[in-house]
Amino acid sequence: MIEILFSIIRHFCRIRAGDNSHRANRQPDNQTTRQPDNQSTRQPVHQTTIHQTNRPDRLVKCCINHYFAIITYLNKNKGLFMQEGLLLTGGHDGFSASRKGHANRWGMPGRSGHPRFIRLAGNSGTPGLVAVWMMILIGLAVIPAESRAGDVSQKDTLTLTLDDAVYMALENNFGLREVLLDRETANQQVREAWGRVYPSVNATGNFTRNLVTANPFAGSGAEQLFADFGAIGWLRYNEEARLEGRQELTFEEYMDRQREGYEEAGITPPSMEDDPFSVDNQFVLSLSITQTLFNGSAFAAIQGAEQFKKLSEDAVHRERQVVIDEVRRAYFSALLAWQQVEVISNSIERLRRTVADVTRTVEQGLASRYEKLSAEVELVNLETELIEAENRAELAKRSINLLLNLDPTRPIRLAGDLAMTAMQPVADITLDEAVSIAKEFRPDLMQAEGFIEINRINERINRASYRPVVSAFANLDYIGRVPDNRTVIMRDPADPDNPFRFTSENRSFFHDTYWNPNIAVGINVSWSIFSGFQNRARLEQSRIETRRSELRHEYLTDAIRVEVDQALRNLRTAERRIESQRRNIEQAQVNYDFARTRLLEGVGTNLEERQASMLLDQSRLSYLAAVHDYLLAVSRFELVLGTSLDRL
């Protein structure tokens, strides 16, 4: 049987090797979904579908193929199984293998739609051994191949639109995730502040084992008091005897009769030297409940925590805007770099044609060798510039990977180009209107206002230190004093009138005699009358911080006006540059076409054609730079306004 299993393993190794090669040659599915642009005030709705190869339908199909491969293999090697004592039967609708008297049955659909059955069994009460091995081999054959296919897909090129990049950055950016953690911290601080006015419940437990207990009356005239406790019973007996007219006993006679009574009852008499106040085991279970009734600093701290939570929300809002601006800048810069590569590549292609033309004219003796060498040198310079431009473009992509928290080695492809769309309607916005919008929407300005409020709340907290703190409390204690010897000696209930007849009782550990409750309630008032002027110093410090935050708010307001002015000027300048460069590139194209036509007609020179080509390339690069600067100016203008231009 072992040989059969090894044969199946070798067969499955060949199946798995073939399946892996098939998967390696199969292209993964690819689909990218585009959604509208995101801004910090809108919820992202875009999702990007990454390449996937671990599909359940492929896994099921692979398992079924392996199953039929096993059936085919067992049919071909029926003789080997018969040598092992297995009875194999098979037909169009199924295959079965059984050992005498043992059978187990599984059904799977056959090629004709009818169920196929495998009946497999082993000896010694182990039915289904072969089937279990089959399932294990299917798992070994399928799972590694699927996992390797997934590893390959992770390195596939990821196509990103600007919307994709913004969405992924808002989900994965390191800086934004850190600010979100700060917001979670603020939420927990609010809960902590409220906890100061909620009831406080504390439970404690204590166990004490008294090994040696000191005499509490040592050093005083009452140190023999424990030894004199025995005389109390003697005095009581004689007083009762005197009243009843019976004969009184001396102390020695009383003690002798008492000892005889203990011996008659089989009880060891207690020692007169023992400390009656000492207990071997002490247990204390306590429950303390405290409720604040008045605490000015606690109530002010709640307001401060709520205000800090609002500040954290403003910080998240601002960080989202900053991340969007950073992603746009990186994305547009990468697009510019790659389109510069494209422009330089086109220049190289044109220059190569020029070199070929110059070479032919030199061979014909119509041009000097100097023109050919000049063109070749210029070609090498452009090729060097192309290498540098490609390197800058790749580095720009790495910057995008970092902002999106992608693997730095993950290849990405940017969808789109720097083609101009409809310009944003910002030309009619005045500076005062833009500043008013920024003051209304800028989250960092709201943060500055929030810091002023927090410092004012801190003033109230320090001022509350001059007031009392009132709280109510309730203490519930359950105290146990349990001796090791819990035998209690008492008068014999059968003869209660005889003071010298005794009996004993062994009490349980939890007897009510040893356990007692203690309950106390009250009100606690704490008032700091004088603290060495510390409270006053802290109050003055908080007032200074309030004035400092007001100065920062004033400075930020002025800075916002300057930022808005700069962003608006840069935006208008970029608009004018685009119009100028658009006309310039049209003229440069006409100039190049004219120079090229003159060269082909034999009227112009190669130098004229190269100069026209250079001017065309410079015009295209200048136009791309102008579009790039305009897009950055729009993004910057939205950042300094604190809102999207679509909302204006």
How does this model look, in words?
- The chain is of the alpha+beta class.
- Among the domains are: 2-155, no CATH class; 206-289 and 468-526, no CATH class.
- Helix content is 59%, strand content 13%.
- The chain has helices at 2-25, 56-76, 78-83, 129-154, 162-172, 174-195, 225-228, 230-244, 251-265, 296-363, 369-403, 431-441, 443-463, 534-600, 606-641; strands at residues 87-90, 95-98, 105-109, 115-119, 158-160, 200-209, 281-294, 412-414, 469-482, 487-491, 502-506, 515-526.
- A four-stranded antiparallel sheet has the order 6-7-9-12, with no helix packed on it. Strands 1-2 form a two-stranded antiparallel ribbon. Strands 3-4 form a two-stranded antiparallel sheet.
- It is elongated.
- The model is unreliable at 1-6, 11-64, 78-133 and 137-154 (pLDDT under 50).
Give the N-to-C terminal Cα separation: 80 Å
Cα-based radius of gyration, to the nearest Å: 48 Å
Give the DSSP E fraction (strand runs of 2 or more residues). Answer: 5-15%
Spatial sequence of strands, sheet with the most strands? 6-7-9-12
**Element order: H for helix, E for strand:** HHHEEEEHEHHEHHHEHHEHHEEEEHH
Give the beta-strand count.
12
Our count of helices gives 15
- What's the main sheet like? 4 strands, antiparallel
**Net shape:** elongated
Low-confidence stretches: 1-6, 11-64, 78-133, 137-154
Portion in helices: 55-70%
Average pLDDT: 75
Q: Tell me the structural class.
A: alpha+beta
